[in-house]
């Protein structure tokens, strides 16, 4: 717990092994999604996402002429709350994709619930306090974004995903075992994260930085692409309920360390990002 607490304060990122999620399931999930992205474009477009829900298949390849773009395709799915799930957007091919993704999501939810207790205790709070602040286990939001980064002929001209911090609560990332891509910003330098088989990379997102009054760090990160190998990653987002005002815990505000943020709901936060067109840490710093 001390190691995790130090990582959250200094890096905003940590890697977990022996996490209780079945390694065979992890590999199967990555495998079926790789199969999906290898399908013909017309098959993938049957699940094209819409601006209203974002759920489904999307691409950032060649969308804007002359601009530096993210280089990759993605598939976005709602896991919780159930009312947001659209079963028609869950792929039927490969045939096992739905079943494997459901079980993978179930085990990731269990892992996130455990990590929330660790993070809460490390702040000096009760083990359920952080979870309650996000809405409790019944009301949190969870979603999965599967990213596919094809081989890129000129990787120096683009990025897999541009620099950003995650707006929600906690992100659990599963990456390819042998292909590097993720970089974390530390002291104005980009540090590459080396893959470890059967591990997850966990990062603090903006709402937990706010709740912790800046003790835990939501850190800017990006993804590079590769000229010789493609890459698949599964990002699981564990987010607060959208209508609960989130501000620093009273226990973490002192005369020496005053509140850094005014309360704001997660829905309001995301709307601010869209309205202001902010990227990276811009919005988080503005809100201080």
UniProtKB/TrEMBL annotation:
Q: Which residues form the Fe2OG dioxygenase domain?
A: 139-240
Keyword Cytoplasm part of the UniProt annotation: no
Q: Which PROSITE patterns match?
A: FE2OG_OXY
Q: Which domain of life is it from?
A: Eukaryota
What keyword terms does UniProt attach to this protein?
Dioxygenase, Iron, Metal-binding, Oxidoreductase
The molecular function terms of the Gene Ontology recorded here are: dioxygenase activity; metal ion binding
Question: PANTHER family of this UniProt entry?
Answer: OXOGLUTARATE/IRON-DEPENDENT DIOXYGENASE (PTHR47991)
Family named by the database record: Belongs to the iron/ascorbate-dependent oxidoreductase family.
Name-wise, this protein is 2-oxoglutarate/Fe(II)-dependent dioxygenase
